[in-house]
Amino acid sequence: MRIIFIRHGDPDYSIDSLTKKGRREAELLAQRVSRWKIDSIYCSPLGRAQATAAYSLEKLGRTAVTKEFLREFKGHVYNPYNGLDHICWDLMPDYWTQSETMYDKDNWTSDPIIKGSRDDIAAEWKMVQDGIDEIIAANGYTRKGRYYTFKEHSDNTVVIFCHFGVTMIMMSHILGIAPPVMLHGLFLPPTSVTVLNTEERVPGEAYFRCQVIGDVTHLHMGGEPVSASGYFSELLQEDYLN
User: Could you give the CA distance from residue 168 to residue 184 in angstroms, rounded to a whole number?
Assistant: First the structure.
Protein backbone atom coordinates (compact mmCIF):
# COMPACT_ATOMS: atom_id res chain seq x y z
CA MET A 1 0.00 0.00 0.00
CA ARG A 2 1.19 3.48 -0.85
CA ILE A 3 0.17 6.76 0.78
CA ILE A 4 1.03 10.00 -1.03
CA PHE A 5 0.73 13.19 1.00
CA ILE A 6 0.54 16.45 -0.96
CA ARG A 7 0.82 19.83 0.72
CA HIS A 8 -1.33 22.63 -0.67
CA GLY A 9 0.15 25.24 -2.99
CA ASP A 10 1.63 28.60 -1.99
CA PRO A 11 -1.08 29.94 0.30
CA ASP A 12 -2.96 33.18 0.72
CA TYR A 13 -3.96 32.59 4.33
CA SER A 14 -6.05 35.78 4.43
CA ILE A 15 -8.65 34.19 2.14
CA ASP A 16 -7.73 30.53 2.74
CA SER A 17 -6.87 29.93 -0.88
CA LEU A 18 -3.86 30.09 -3.22
CA THR A 19 -1.70 32.92 -4.44
CA LYS A 20 -1.11 33.31 -8.19
CA LYS A 21 2.12 31.40 -7.62
CA GLY A 22 0.20 28.70 -5.76
CA ARG A 23 -2.10 28.25 -8.72
CA ARG A 24 0.88 27.86 -11.07
CA GLU A 25 2.30 25.27 -8.69
CA ALA A 26 -1.00 23.38 -8.58
CA GLU A 27 -1.17 23.31 -12.38
CA LEU A 28 2.31 21.79 -12.61
CA LEU A 29 1.46 19.33 -9.85
CA ALA A 30 -1.67 18.24 -11.73
CA GLN A 31 0.41 17.29 -14.75
CA ARG A 32 2.39 14.97 -12.49
CA VAL A 33 -0.58 13.54 -10.59
CA SER A 34 -2.52 12.84 -13.80
CA ARG A 35 0.01 10.11 -14.68
CA TRP A 36 -0.51 8.18 -11.45
CA LYS A 37 -2.68 5.12 -10.90
CA ILE A 38 -4.74 6.21 -7.89
CA ASP A 39 -7.29 4.14 -5.99
CA SER A 40 -8.66 6.78 -3.63
CA ILE A 41 -8.25 10.50 -3.04
CA TYR A 42 -8.86 12.43 0.17
CA CYS A 43 -8.74 16.14 0.87
CA SER A 44 -8.75 18.62 3.73
CA PRO A 45 -11.90 20.78 3.97
CA LEU A 46 -9.84 23.98 3.98
CA GLY A 47 -9.88 26.18 0.90
CA ARG A 48 -6.17 26.14 0.07
CA ALA A 49 -6.10 22.33 -0.01
CA GLN A 50 -9.36 22.13 -1.96
CA ALA A 51 -8.08 24.66 -4.50
CA THR A 52 -4.84 22.71 -4.94
CA ALA A 53 -6.64 19.40 -5.38
CA ALA A 54 -9.09 20.86 -7.89
CA TYR A 55 -6.46 21.08 -10.65
CA SER A 56 -5.48 17.43 -10.29
CA LEU A 57 -9.05 16.20 -9.89
CA GLU A 58 -10.08 17.96 -13.11
CA LYS A 59 -7.27 16.28 -15.05
CA LEU A 60 -8.09 12.91 -13.52
CA GLY A 61 -11.85 13.26 -13.94
CA ARG A 62 -12.16 12.26 -10.29
CA THR A 63 -13.59 13.53 -7.03
CA ALA A 64 -12.02 13.51 -3.58
CA VAL A 65 -13.49 12.53 -0.24
CA THR A 66 -13.25 15.45 2.16
CA LYS A 67 -12.26 14.48 5.71
CA GLU A 68 -12.49 16.91 8.61
CA PHE A 69 -9.47 15.45 10.39
CA LEU A 70 -7.27 16.46 7.44
CA ARG A 71 -7.67 20.18 8.16
CA GLU A 72 -4.55 21.90 9.44
CA PHE A 73 -3.65 20.63 12.90
CA LYS A 74 -5.04 22.78 15.69
CA GLY A 75 -2.56 23.43 18.44
CA HIS A 76 -1.63 26.89 19.66
CA VAL A 77 0.80 26.98 22.56
CA TYR A 78 2.31 29.80 24.61
CA ASN A 79 5.53 31.28 23.26
CA PRO A 80 7.49 32.93 26.10
CA TYR A 81 9.62 34.89 23.62
CA ASN A 82 6.78 37.21 22.67
CA GLY A 83 3.99 36.33 25.10
CA LEU A 84 1.74 35.15 22.26
CA ASP A 85 0.09 31.92 21.24
CA HIS A 86 1.87 30.19 18.37
CA ILE A 87 1.25 27.03 16.41
CA CYS A 88 3.00 24.17 18.18
CA TRP A 89 5.71 23.87 15.51
CA ASP A 90 6.82 27.49 15.84
CA LEU A 91 8.84 27.36 19.08
CA MET A 92 12.44 28.28 19.78
CA PRO A 93 14.92 25.40 20.24
CA ASP A 94 16.02 26.21 23.77
CA TYR A 95 12.39 26.22 24.88
CA TRP A 96 10.85 22.97 23.64
CA THR A 97 14.02 20.84 23.46
CA GLN A 98 14.61 21.15 27.23
CA SER A 99 11.73 18.77 27.90
CA GLU A 100 12.27 15.04 27.48
CA THR A 101 8.49 14.61 27.26
CA MET A 102 8.43 16.47 23.95
CA TYR A 103 10.53 13.61 22.54
CA ASP A 104 8.11 10.99 23.86
CA LYS A 105 5.91 9.88 20.95
CA ASP A 106 3.18 8.49 23.20
CA ASN A 107 3.14 11.14 25.95
CA TRP A 108 4.16 14.44 24.33
CA THR A 109 0.70 15.93 24.89
CA SER A 110 1.21 15.63 28.66
CA ASP A 111 4.07 18.13 28.57
CA PRO A 112 3.27 21.49 30.27
CA ILE A 113 4.04 23.32 27.02
CA ILE A 114 1.27 21.36 25.28
CA LYS A 115 -1.16 21.10 28.19
CA GLY A 116 -1.18 24.86 28.52
CA SER A 117 -2.69 25.24 25.05
CA ARG A 118 -6.05 26.91 24.48
CA ASP A 119 -6.73 24.01 22.11
CA ASP A 120 -7.30 20.42 23.20
CA ILE A 121 -4.20 19.14 21.43
CA ALA A 122 -4.53 15.63 22.90
CA ALA A 123 -8.03 15.31 21.42
CA GLU A 124 -6.85 16.68 18.06
CA TRP A 125 -3.94 14.26 18.06
CA LYS A 126 -6.23 11.29 18.71
CA MET A 127 -8.65 12.41 15.99
CA VAL A 128 -5.85 12.52 13.42
CA GLN A 129 -4.43 9.15 14.48
CA ASP A 130 -7.86 7.53 14.30
CA GLY A 131 -8.58 9.21 10.96
CA ILE A 132 -5.46 8.03 9.14
CA ASP A 133 -5.79 4.54 10.63
CA GLU A 134 -9.35 4.42 9.28
CA ILE A 135 -8.09 5.23 5.77
CA ILE A 136 -5.34 2.62 6.07
CA ALA A 137 -7.84 0.05 7.37
CA ALA A 138 -10.12 0.71 4.38
CA ASN A 139 -7.26 -0.68 2.28
CA GLY A 140 -6.92 -3.84 4.35
CA TYR A 141 -4.26 -2.88 6.93
CA THR A 142 -5.12 -2.91 10.63
CA ARG A 143 -3.10 -1.16 13.30
CA LYS A 144 -1.54 -3.53 15.84
CA GLY A 145 0.60 -1.77 18.39
CA ARG A 146 3.15 0.16 16.37
CA TYR A 147 2.79 -1.68 13.05
CA TYR A 148 0.01 -2.99 10.78
CA THR A 149 -1.34 -6.42 9.93
CA PHE A 150 -3.20 -7.58 6.85
CA LYS A 151 -4.90 -10.66 5.45
CA GLU A 152 -4.36 -9.83 1.78
CA HIS A 153 -1.63 -7.71 0.22
CA SER A 154 -2.81 -4.50 -1.44
CA ASP A 155 -1.16 -2.43 -4.16
CA ASN A 156 -3.57 0.45 -3.57
CA THR A 157 -2.38 4.03 -3.82
CA VAL A 158 -4.04 6.66 -1.64
CA VAL A 159 -3.49 10.36 -2.32
CA ILE A 160 -4.13 12.92 0.43
CA PHE A 161 -4.21 16.68 -0.21
CA CYS A 162 -3.69 18.51 3.06
CA HIS A 163 -1.23 20.61 5.08
CA PHE A 164 2.25 20.55 6.58
CA GLY A 165 1.27 20.24 10.24
CA VAL A 166 -1.33 17.51 9.90
CA THR A 167 0.95 15.56 7.54
CA MET A 168 3.67 15.58 10.20
CA ILE A 169 1.17 14.39 12.81
CA MET A 170 0.02 11.52 10.57
CA MET A 171 3.58 10.52 9.71
CA SER A 172 4.63 10.67 13.36
CA HIS A 173 1.85 8.20 14.17
CA ILE A 174 2.60 5.88 11.27
CA LEU A 175 6.39 5.91 11.76
CA GLY A 176 6.47 6.16 15.57
CA ILE A 177 8.32 9.47 15.86
CA ALA A 178 7.45 12.20 18.37
CA PRO A 179 5.39 14.93 16.64
CA PRO A 180 7.44 17.90 17.97
CA VAL A 181 10.55 16.42 16.34
CA MET A 182 8.76 16.03 13.02
CA LEU A 183 7.11 19.45 13.21
CA HIS A 184 10.31 21.34 14.00
CA GLY A 185 12.81 19.20 12.11
CA LEU A 186 11.23 18.75 8.67
CA PHE A 187 9.94 21.02 5.92
CA LEU A 188 7.45 20.28 3.15
CA PRO A 189 7.39 22.92 0.39
CA PRO A 190 4.01 23.87 -1.10
CA THR A 191 2.70 21.22 -3.55
CA SER A 192 5.46 18.85 -2.42
CA VAL A 193 4.96 15.11 -2.69
CA THR A 194 5.73 12.76 0.21
CA VAL A 195 5.43 8.99 -0.27
CA LEU A 196 5.07 6.23 2.31
CA ASN A 197 5.01 2.62 1.16
CA THR A 198 4.51 -0.60 3.11
CA GLU A 199 7.33 -3.06 3.53
CA GLU A 200 5.91 -6.57 3.99
CA ARG A 201 8.91 -8.73 4.82
CA VAL A 202 6.89 -11.00 7.10
CA PRO A 203 3.61 -12.48 5.80
CA GLY A 204 0.69 -10.56 7.22
CA GLU A 205 2.82 -7.82 8.77
CA ALA A 206 3.50 -4.36 7.35
CA TYR A 207 5.50 -1.31 8.33
CA PHE A 208 5.54 1.92 6.38
CA ARG A 209 8.80 3.34 5.09
CA CYS A 210 9.16 6.89 3.78
CA GLN A 211 10.46 6.68 0.22
CA VAL A 212 10.23 10.34 -0.73
CA ILE A 213 9.71 13.48 1.35
CA GLY A 214 8.98 16.99 0.17
CA ASP A 215 9.67 16.28 -3.51
CA VAL A 216 9.01 19.14 -5.93
CA THR A 217 10.31 17.69 -9.20
CA HIS A 218 7.23 19.02 -11.01
CA LEU A 219 8.21 22.59 -10.06
CA HIS A 220 11.79 22.14 -11.27
CA MET A 221 10.59 20.71 -14.58
CA GLY A 222 8.17 23.59 -15.00
CA GLY A 223 10.72 26.24 -14.13
CA GLU A 224 8.74 27.34 -11.08
CA PRO A 225 10.74 28.45 -8.00
CA VAL A 226 10.14 26.54 -4.79
CA SER A 227 8.09 28.46 -2.24
CA ALA A 228 9.54 28.88 1.25
CA SER A 229 6.09 29.26 2.85
CA GLY A 230 6.33 27.79 6.35
CA TYR A 231 10.13 27.82 6.40
CA PHE A 232 11.92 30.11 8.84
CA SER A 233 15.21 30.49 6.98
CA GLU A 234 16.39 31.45 3.52
CA LEU A 235 15.53 28.82 0.96
CA LEU A 236 18.25 28.69 -1.67
CA GLN A 237 16.93 27.49 -4.99
CA GLU A 238 20.31 25.98 -5.92
CA ASP A 239 20.00 23.69 -2.91
CA TYR A 240 17.02 22.12 -4.66
CA LEU A 241 18.32 22.24 -8.21
CA ASN A 242 21.88 20.93 -7.80
Answer: 10
